[in-house]
Design goal:
hydrolase, alpha/beta, EC 3.1.3.48, manganese ion binding, protein-tyrosine-phosphatase, Caps_polysacc_synth_CpsB/CapC, about 40% helix, 10 helices
Length: about 260
């Protein structure tokens, strides 16, 4: 499995404080079946960011790979950033002051708990206009999408890839988030699952294996595997991604999570 959203680098945000914590997360990821992880520290402008310097991040990834090799952990690492919505993202990416995923054109855009939808749409449009492929991080935790998940449909139709958090899907963040995330998966309003792990245990630990199992129950193994293997691989490769048509969520009396 691929995990395209993880706070595994030490001492730079609200992830692990040291290399011991980073390696503990790495072991937890491997135990979950993850073979490739994207280190996505919080970017400039985030209240969780302590240090954001591309050269420092690259050094940390090199060190992490060395630690993983010595520990004989078969985990590949790609560097990225969880970017805060801002008006200058494209310019900072162009100048190299902000990092997308590895050498690809894919970028991870954070959706904070409270945001004006028009501001988010403008940031997405600017990034796409500059040739970037936008991955939208954990919209199930954003108020505007909690109130109306169907607002994701026009974004997906424009090529935005929606990433939900594994822990939300399995219920670690409460019943409400689980219900919303389940609807997103069932109605093709989410394309990939990632851990957003900050720790090896607890509510912010990886939950990728269990999330894959839940997704399999909802939409079948083929589609669930696309969410954790095929589509993440294509994103990192800048390959064409066929996105399934999203379905409008309508209130209904029957159990909407019954598999199609």
């Amino acid at each position: 499995m691929y995990d395209l959203h993880c706070h595994i680098l030490p001492g730079i945000d609200d992830g692990p404080a040291d290399w011991s914590g980073s390696l503990a997360i790495a072991r937890a990821l491997v135990a979950e079946g993850v073979t490739c992880v994207a280190a996505t520290p919080h970017g400039p402008g985030s209240s969780q960011s302590r240090i954001y310097l591309p050269s420092r991040l690259r050094d940390l990834v090199v060190q992490l790979r060395e630690y993983l090799q010595r520990a004989k952990l078969g985990l590949q690492v790609v560097l990225g950033t969880e970017m805060v919505v801002a008006s200058d993202l494209t310019e900072r990416l162009r100048q190299g002051d902000l990092l997308g995923y590895g050498t690809s054109r894919a970028v991870l855009l954070e959706t904070p708990a409270h945001i004006v939808i028009e501001h988010l749409q403008r940031s997405i449009f600017d990034l796409q206009l500059a040739g970037h492929r936008v991955i939208l991080a954990h919209p199930e935790r954003t108020r505007v999408f909690q109130d109306n998940p169907n607002l994701l449909i026009p974004l997906i139709e424009r090529g935005v890839v929606v990433q939900i958090t594994a822990a939300s899907l399995v219920g670690w963040h409460g019943q409400r988030l689980q219900d919303i995330t389940t609807q997103m998966v069932y109605h093709n309003l989410a394309q990939i699952i990632a851990s957003d792990a900050h720790a090896p245990t607890g509510a912010r630990a990886p939950a990728m294996r269990e999330a894959f199992q839940v997704a399999t129950q909802l939409v079948g193994e083929h589609r669930a595997r696309r969410m954790v293997e095929e589509l993440p691989h294509l994103l990192l490769s800048d390959a064409q991604i066929p996105l399934a048509e999203p379905y409008f969520i309508q209130p209904q009396k029957q159990r909407w999570w019954r598999r199609r």
